[in-house]
Design goal:
The structure holds two protein chains of two kinds. By secondary structure, chain A is an all-alpha fold. In chain A, about 70% of the residues lie in helices and about 0% in strands. In chain A, strands 1-2 form a two-stranded antiparallel ribbon. Chain B folds into three domains: about 35 residues; about 190 residues, Penicillin-binding protein 2a (Domain 2) (Alpha-Beta Complex), CATH 3.90.1310.10; about 325 residues, Beta-lactamase (3-Layer(aba) Sandwich), CATH 3.40.710. Chain B has 23 helices and 24 strands. Classes of the chains: A mainly alpha, B alpha+beta.
Chain lengths: ~375, ~650
C-alpha cells in the first residue's frame, strides 16, 4: 500500500517545480535562439526556408525539453549514466559501419538524423559525474585513476577515427578538464601533457591527409587560398568588413553572395559579425558569458559531488563550443568543426545543449525543496 | 558520503583556476574581434568589396569630326551586339544553328564564342554573358526580335560604331578607327581595353585621346560562383569632344571629283557608247561611269592631290588625295577580300598624297628661286638673259622646255613663260645655299606642323646634305637642276600650298592647320614687300598674259582672277637621241612615264584669300592638266559658274 502510494506520489507532477527554474537563464537562451533564427533567416537571403523555421521549431522543442528535465530528479537522471555511455559507445561503433553522410557521422532514424558524437559529450559528463561520486580520486587506487582516462579516450578515438578531429579533441578537453577538476594530481597532469606533446609526431602519422592539410594551412594560411585557407580568409573578410556597426541585417554581402562557407552551421557567427558588426558579435559573446556564469552560480553552493561535476561539465561544454567556434571563425585556431550553441543550424548539437541545460535545471530545482 | 570539505575546497580552487583561464580565453576572443572589426576593418572592407563587385569599363561615345560648317565627316551610328546569357546546361550549338538560320554570323565570331565557352568550362564558371556578334544591322535585330520568344537566353546590347557618312571623300583626313590590336599596346597613350576602337590613321589617330572621351565604370555584383546578380552604371562615361576641322566638305567633294576626272570624259554606264565598248573592256567596272581619255581609252581616275589653304589663317579648306578608300570598311571589320583590294592597288589608296606624297616641285618653285636672287641683290627687275633653248655647261646640255628657246627675256617674262634657261643662269648666280635658304623660309624641306601623323618632310638639298649623303661635293650641274625644281628636290602638295600662301600673304610665314579657328602664331616672313609684289605680279602674268603658261585657265572674272605658276616634272630622263627624233607626247607614253602635272596659285589676285596646289601624278603638263583643275576649284569656291 505504502509502496503504491509512494509510486503515486513520485509520479505526480509537481508543477510548482517550474517556478524554481532559472528563468533569467532561459530568457538568455531564448534571446540566443532568436538571434539564431534571425541569422538563419538572413543566411537564406531573407527566407524562412530551409533553416530558420526549422530552427525555431527545434528551439521550441528544446525549451520544452528543459522544462521536462527540470521536473525529473537529478538522481534519477544520473542513475543511468553508465547506460547512456554504453549506448553512446555502441552508436559510435554503429556509425563506423552503418553511418550515413559522406564522413559517416550520422545515424538515420528515418524521421531524424542523429550525430552520436554530439550526444556522447553529454553522456561523458554524466558518466564522469557518476563515476567520481562512486569512486572519488583521493580515496580510490591507481586503477581507478586509469579507468576514467580510458572512459574518455575510448569515445575520443572512435570519433577521431570517423574522422572528426575537432569533436574528438573537444571531448578530450572536456573529459580531461573534468578529471582535473575532480582532483587529479598535478604531477600526473604535467606527465600526461608531456606524453601528449611527445606523441604528436606519432599522431601526425595517423592523421588523414585532409586533417594534415588543415593544420598546415592553419599554420601557414597563404599556402592555400581555395581550400580551407579560402574558407578562413572569407570568414575573416566577412567579420572584418562588418566594422563596428555592421552592414545591416540581411545586407551582408559576403553571406548573400555565398562567399561564406557553411554560413548556416559552423560559420554562422561570421554572418552575425558581418551584418551586426563588433557590437553584435560582442553582444553574442556577452550572452554566452552570462549563460555560463548563470550555470556556474549553481556550482559553488552545490555540495553533491556528482551534481557539482555535472554543472561544471555542462558549463564547460558551453565554454568549449563557444570558444572553439569563435576561435575557429576568427582564424585563431584551425577549422575544427564546432557549432555555436542555439545559433548554428544542427539538430543533434542543439539537442545536446538543451539536455545539458535540462540536467542543470533539474539539479537546481531539486536542490533544497524536492 | 565520502566527500569532505577539504576536497570541496580543492575542487573549488581548481574551479576558480579553470574559470580564470576561461575568462582569459574570452578576453582573447573579444580582443580578436576588436582587432578584426575595428582595427583592420578597412582592409577587410576593401577585400569584401573586391569579392562583391566586378568593375568593368564602359566605353564612351567617340567625338565627331566635323567640317567647318558642322557637317559630319566622322560620326557614330547605333549598332547592336547579340549577347547570350550562357549557362553550363545550355546547348549552344543548337542555339547557334537556329540563329544562323535567321541571321548570318561570321565563322571567326563563332570560333571566338566557342573559345570563350571552353575557357568558362575550364575555369568552372557556371554562367556568363558572352558576345555572339557585334555587327547586327537594324534588319537583323528586327528579324531576331520577332522570334525572341524562342531564344530566352539572348539579348541585344546597343553600342556605337564609327561611321564616315561621306565615304571616301575625306578618308585621308579623318583616317579610320579599328579595334585595338597587340601592336597598339606598345603605345603608352592607348588604354588597354579590349574591344576599344582607336584611331589608326589621320585625325582619328592624331586626336585619338581628344576624341575618345572618358571611360565609365559598370559595377557588377557577383556571387562566389561568378553569377552576376546585379549590374549598374557606377560612373557615367564621358563622350569625346567633337573636332571641328577647317575643311569645307562641298569644296573637298568637288575638288576630289574634279581631280579624278582630270581631262577625261565621263561616260555613264547607261549611255549607248558604253554599251558599244562594253565587250572590249578587260576589267569589270564597278562604278556607274567610266573615264575615257582623249583617245577614247578607258582610264582610271587621275591620281594626285589638291590642297586649298587660307593664306591668312593657314586653315586647310580642302585636302584631297586620289585614289581614296572607304574608311567604313575598317571600322566595320575588314574582310580579306577588301584588304587585298587595297593592298594590291599599285596606286596605294591609303597614302595621303597631300602630306605624304613627295614630288619634285618642278617650275612651281621658280618664284622662290627668283626671290632668292632678288633678296640677295643678285639681279634687279630688269636683268635679262638669253634663251636659245639649251644651256651648255661644261660638256653637259641643259634644255629649256621650249625647244627653240624664248630669246631674250626679263624675270617677269621668264616666270610667265616658265623659261628654264633663264633660271639655269639665275640659279648658277645665286648658288644652292641661298636657294635652299629661301625654299626653307617658304616652308619646304621640313615637316609641316599639321595635325596628322603621316607627314613627310620632303627634301631641300644643300652642299652639306650632299656630302653627308654621298660623300661627294655638290656640283654646279646639280644647282642647275635644282633651279627648275628637279634633281634631288622633293616636296609635298601641302608644302607647295604653304609656299604659295606665304608668297600671297607676303608678311607672315603662314602655317597650315586642319582645325577651324585654331589660334596660331605666325612669324614674320622677312621678305621685302617690293620683291614679293614683283613676284606676285609675275604670277599674275602667268594667267593673264597671252604668253603665260596658264593663259588657258583664266577664271574670267576680274574680281576673282587667280595668279599662279605651272610645273611639269619630267619623270624619265630624255636622251639627246630622243630629242633629235622628237619627244613622244605624254598621252602616247606609258602612264608611269608621263610627266607629273603641277600648279600652284592663289586667288583672287587683287585681294588674295586662298592658295592652291594641284599635283596630278603622270598627268601630262601643268598648264593643260593641273591649272584647269585649280581654276575650276577656285570657281567652285567663289561660286562662279564653270
Amino acid at each position: 500500500m505504502k509502496k503504491k502510494l509512494s509510486f503515486y506520489n513520485s509520479s505526480l507532477i509537481r508543477w510548482e517545480k517550474l517556478l524554481l527554474i532559472d528563468w533569467f537563464l532561459l530568457s538568455i537562451v531564448t534571446i540566443l535562439c532568436i538571434i539564431g533564427i534571425g541569422s538563419l533567416y538572413s543566411a537564406s537571403v531573407g527566407d524562412w526556408y530551409p533553416w530558420a523555421l526549422n530552427h525555431a521549431y527545434r528551439c521550441f522543442i528544446g525549451i520544452i525539453l528543459v522544462l521536462i528535465f527540470s521536473l525529473i530528479k537529478p538522481e534519477k537522471i544520473l542513475k543511468y549514466s553508465y547506460f547512456y555511455y554504453l549506448i553512446s559507445i555502441m552508436s559510435l561503433i554503429y556509425v563506423e559501419f552503418f553511418g550515413v553522410g559522406d564522413v559517416k557521422r550520422w545515424i538515420d532514424l528515418k524521421f531524424i538524423y542523429i550525430q552520436p558524437s554530439e550526444l556522447t559529450k553529454i553522456a561523458l559528463i554524466l558518466l564522469l559525474a557518476k563515476y567520481f561520486s562512486d569512486f572519488p580520486i583521493k580515496k580510490s587506487g591507481v586503477i581507478f585513476l586509469i579507468i576514467p582516462f580510458i572512459l574518455v579516450l575510448l569515445p575520443t578515438l572512435l570519433i577521431m577515427n570517423q574522422p572528426d578531429l575537432g569533436t574528438g579533441f573537444m571531448l578530450l578537453l572536456l573529459g580531461g578538464t573534468i578529471i582535473f577538476l575532480a582532483g587529479l594530481n598535478w604531477k600526473i597532469l604535467v606527465f600526461l601533457i608531456t606524453v601528449l606533446l611527445g606523441s604528436i609526431p606519432v599522431l601526425w602519422h595517423y592523421l588523414y591527409d585532409y586533417q594534415k592539410h588543415r593544420i598546415m594551412v592553419f599554420l601557414n594560411p597563404q599556402t592555400d587560398t581555395l581550400g580551407s585557407g579560402y574558407q578562413i580568409m572569407q570568414s575573416k573578410i566577412a567579420i572584418g568588413s562588418g566594422g563596428i556597426f555592421g552592414k545591416g541585417y540581411l545586407l551582408g554581402s559576403q553571406s548573400r553572395l555565398e562567399y561564406l562557407p557553411e554560413k548556416h552551421t559552423d560559420f554562422v557567427f561570421t554572418l552575425v559579425a558581418e551584418e551586426m558588426g563588433l557590437i553584435g558579435s560582442l553582444f553574442v559573446i556577452l550572452l554566452f558569458i552570462l549563460l555560463i556564469y548563470l550555470l556556474l552560480k549553481n556550482y559553488l553552493n552545490e555540495e553533491n559531488l556528482a551534481n557539482k561535476i555535472t554543472i561544471f561539465g555542462v558549463s564547460f561544454l558551453f565554454f568549449l563550443y563557444v570558444s572553439l567556434n569563435i576561435g575557429m571563425v576568427t582564424g585563431l585556431i584551425p577549422v575544427v568543426g564546432a557549432p555555436l550553441p542555439f545559433i548554428s543550424h544542427g539538430g543533434t548539437s542543439l539537442l545536446t545543449v538543451f539536455i545539458g541545460l535540462g540536467v542543470v535545471q533539474s539539479i537546481r530545482v531539486h536542490k533544497d525543496k524536492f | 558520503m565520502s566527500f569532505k570539505d577539504k576536497d570541496i575546497k580543492s575542487m573549488n580552487r581548481r574551479f576558480l583556476f579553470i574559470s580564470s583561464l576561461k575568462g582569459m580565453i574570452f578576453l582573447t576572443l573579444g580582443w580578436r574581434l576588436f582587432d578584426l572589426q575595428f582595427r583592420e576593418n578597412q582592409k577587410y572592407e576593401r577585400l569584401s568589396e573586391k569579392n562583391q563587385f566586378n568593375f568593368s569599363l564602359v566605353l564612351p561615345e567617340r567625338g565627331q569630326i566635323l567640317d567647318r560648317k558642322n557637317r559630319v565627316l566622322a560620326g557614330n551610328r547605333d549598332a547592336f551586339s547579340l549577347i547570350i546569357n550562357w549557362k553550363k546546361e545550355l546547348n549552344v550549338e543548337n542555339i547557334l544553328f537556329k540563329i544562323q538560320s535567321i541571321i548570318s554570323i561570321s565563322d571567326s565570331e563563332v570560333r571566338y564564342l566557342k573559345k570563350r565557352i571552353s575557357d568558362a568550362y575550364q575555369n568552372k564558371i557556371k554562367s556568363q554573358k558572352l558576345l555572339i556578334t557585334k555587327n547586327l544591322s537594324q534588319k537583323d535585330v528586327s528579324r531576331l526580335a520577332v522570334k525572341i520568344v524562342d531564344f530566352p537566353e539572348l539579348n541585344f546590347v546597343m553600342a556605337k560604331k564609327r561611321i564616315y557618312p561621306q565615304g571616301g571623300i575625306t578618308s585621308h583626313l579623318t583616317g579610320y578607327t579599328g579595334i585595338i590590336t597587340t601592336s597598339d599596346l606598345k603605345n603608352k597613350n592607348i588604354p588597354k581595353v579590349p574591344g576599344l576602337d582607336i584611331g589608326k590613321s589621320g585625325l582619328e589617330k592624331y586626336f585619338d585621346s581628344y576624341l575618345r572621351g572618358d571611360f565609365g565604370r559598370k559595377r557588377d555584383e557577383v556571387t562566389a560562383r561568378g553569377l552576376i546578380i546585379d549590374s549598374n552604371l557606377f560612373e557615367n562615361p564621358k563622350s569625346g569632344s567633337s573636332l571641328k576641322t577647317s575643311i569645307d566638305l562641298s569644296i573637298q567633294s568637288y575638288a576630289l571629283d574634279r581631280l579624278e576626272k582630270g581631262n577625261s570624259r565621263i561616260v555613264s554606264k547607261n549611255s549607248s557608247y558604253y554599251k558599244k565598248i562594253k565587250n572590249s573592256l578587260n576589267e569589270k567596272i564597278s562604278s556607274d561611269f567610266i573615264y575615257l581619255d582623249k583617245k577614247n581609252r578607258v582610264v582610271p581616275p587621275e591620281t594626285g592631290s589638291v590642297v586649298v589653304m587660307d593664306i591668312h589663317t593657314g586653315e586647310i579648306i580642302c585636302s584631297v588625295s586620289s585614289p581614296h578608300f572607304n574608311p567604313n570598311i575598317f571600322s566595320r571589320g575588314l574582310n580579306i577580300k577588301e584588304w587585298k583590294q587595297i593592298k594590291n592597288n599599285t596606286r596605294s589608296p591609303l597614302l595621303n598624297r597631300s602630306v605624304a606624297g613627295l614630288y619634285p616641285p618642278g617650275s612651281t618653285i621658280k618664284m622662290a628661286i627668283a626671290l632668292a636672287a632678288l633678296e640677295n641683290d643678285i639681279l634687279n627687275f630688269n636683268t635679262h638673259f638669253f634663251c636659245k633653248g639649251v644651256k651648255e655647261f661644261g660638256n653637259m646640255k641643259f634644255h629649256c622646255w621650249a625647244k627653240n628657246g624664248h630669246g631674250k627675256l626679263n624675270l617677269t617674262q621668264a616666270i610667265e613663260r616658265s623659261c628654264d634657261v633663264y633660271f639655269y643662269e639665275l640659279g648658277l648666280k645665286v648658288g644652292i645655299e641661298k636657294i635652299a635658304e629661301m625654299l626653307r623660309k617658304l616652308g619646304l624641306g621640313s615637316r609641316s606642323e599639321i595635325e596628322l601623323n603621316e607627314i613627310k618632310s620632303g627634301l631641300v638639298p644643300s652642299k652639306k646634305w650632299k656630302i653627308k649623303k654621298d660623300g661627294i661635293s655638290w656640283t654646279p650641274g646639280e644647282t642647275i637642276n635644282a633651279s627648275i625644281g628637279q634633281g634631288y628636290m622633293l616636296t609635298s602638295p601641302i608644302q607647295l600650298a604653304t609656299m604659295t600662301s606665304r608668297i600671297a600673304n607676303g608678311i607672315y610665314a603662314v602655317k597650315p592647320t586642319l582645325i577651324k579657328d585654331k589660334k596660331q602664331f605666325f612669324e614674320k616672313l622677312k621678305i621685302s614687300e617690293k620683291n614679293i609684289n614683283f613676284i606676285k605680279n609675275a604670277m599674275e602674268q602667268v594667267v593673264i598674259s597671252n604668253f603665260g603658261t596658264a593663259k588657258n585657265s583664266k577664271i574670267g572674272s576680274s574680281k576673282f582672277e587667280m595668279a599662279g605658276k605651272t610645273g611639269t616634272v619630267q619623270v624619265v630622263r630624255i636622251s639627246e637621241l630622243e630629242r633629235e627624233k622628237g619627244i613622244i607626247k605624254n598621252i602616247d607614253r606609258d602612264w608611269k612615264k608621263r610627266d607629273h602635272a603641277l600648279f600652284v596659285g592663289y586667288a583672287p589676285f587683287k585681294k588674295p584669300r586662298y592658295a592652291i596646289s594641284v599635283v596630278v601624278e603622270h598627268g601630262g603638263s601643268g598648264s593643260t592638266m593641273a591649272a584647269p583643275i585649280a581654276r575650276d576649284v577656285f570657281k567652285k569656291i567663289f561660286n562662279l559658274k564653270s
